[in-house]
């Protein structure tokens, strides 16, 4: 039997766009004959990865984990997309997510390009994902990649239903004191999608835009110009309570804010991130 070398596999993959396992199978059947292997792939109707990539992939899962570091902890979360939730909930797809996030941790990869280049047991994350696309006959892709670091990191993974894998992951980095309430803070982030940690973090152009809208709305409502600044200030406070984490009402007890919750334990949130399936476009 002819030896199926990596060079043969690469040549057929580049020529056909088929997945690695499909190419290996075709080459084995063709006893190493490249031309015959290409014919087998065509006859089998195996679709090239490029053809699958044109299809929308907005289902999937978020795989996440926390790793200890010299400085404390780092949380890693990666979005892995498929075309259907039928594929997303299979054991094989969940295992793929675990494999990808393990490679991310091993490489300490913190952006899409670094993750795709990270090594897996077989090859790279990119090759592993391409292979999964061939296996599932769907467009499988890496979506958003996010990390957060601090003395302590907490992860909250939300499932839309018990049979589906996590589709929303919130990660929060706190100091040691803040770790006591970090789970509740991560749950808050998952549920309420804050955009900024504090009002000081809100970009100046966003603040200016909101103030203009609030001013124009107040004037359009016929409010006296003398009291418009006070009305605008009130509306800005309402805006901050909606989009700023520490000013949001705590979902478990709306009588207090997340800032109040942290004050109770003398803790701080240092950073956070939230990632949701189908809501990101970092990679195609």
UniProtKB/TrEMBL annotation:
Keywords: Cytoplasm, Elongation factor, Protein biosynthesis. One of its GO terms (molecular function) is translation elongation factor activity. It is found in: Cytoplasm. InterPro entries: EF-Ts_dimer_sf (IPR036402), Transl_elong_EFTs/EF1B (IPR001816), Transl_elong_EFTs/EF1B_dimer (IPR014039), Transl_elong_Ts_CS (IPR018101), UBA-like_sf (IPR009060). Residues 84-87 are annotated as: Involved in Mg(2+) ion dislocation from EF-Tu. PANTHER family: ELONGATION FACTOR TS (PTHR11741), ELONGATION FACTOR TS, MITOCHONDRIAL (PTHR11741:SF0). Belongs to the EF-Ts family. Associates with the EF-Tu.GDP complex and induces the exchange of GDP to GTP. It remains bound to the aminoacyl-tRNA.EF-Tu.GTP complex up to the GTP hydrolysis stage on the ribosome. NCBIfam families: tsf. This is Elongation factor Ts. The gene is tsf.
